[in-house]
Structure formats: C-alpha cells, structure tokens
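An instance noted here:
***
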Amino acid sequence: MIRRRSAIEPAIGHMKADGKLDRNWLKGALGDAMHAVLCGAGHNLRMILRKLRLFYALVLIALLNRSTATVVAT
C-alpha cells in the first residue's frame, strides 16, 4: 500500500498544481466523480501530446539531416 501511494502522490500533486484539480465546481457526488475523471483524462492527454511533440521533433531532425546530407553529397 505504501509503495503504491508513493508512486501516485507525484501525479496527484502535478494535477493539483498544473491540472486544475484544485477546485471542483461540479455539483454532487456525480460532479466529484466527473471532475476526477476529467482531470485524469487531461493529465493523460498532456502526457500523450508531450510524447507526440518529442516524436515529431525527432522525425523533423532526421528529415533535415537526410536532406542536408544529400545536398552536401551532390
């Protein structure tokens, strides 16, 4: 239990600081559940977009290196 909690605490802290998990404006127990799920989904989307941005940068660098290598070779 302690290991799992120590693994989850940084993610919750990040969602509270940057993911708008601070205040719930939705009404009732259903609103509480929806807010938590939406904050988690937003966190996951940010992680996916970060990885896509890195992948796009690597592809762009590879394409630029290949195009400059062909210009130098000719």
Notes: Residues 2-73 form one domain.
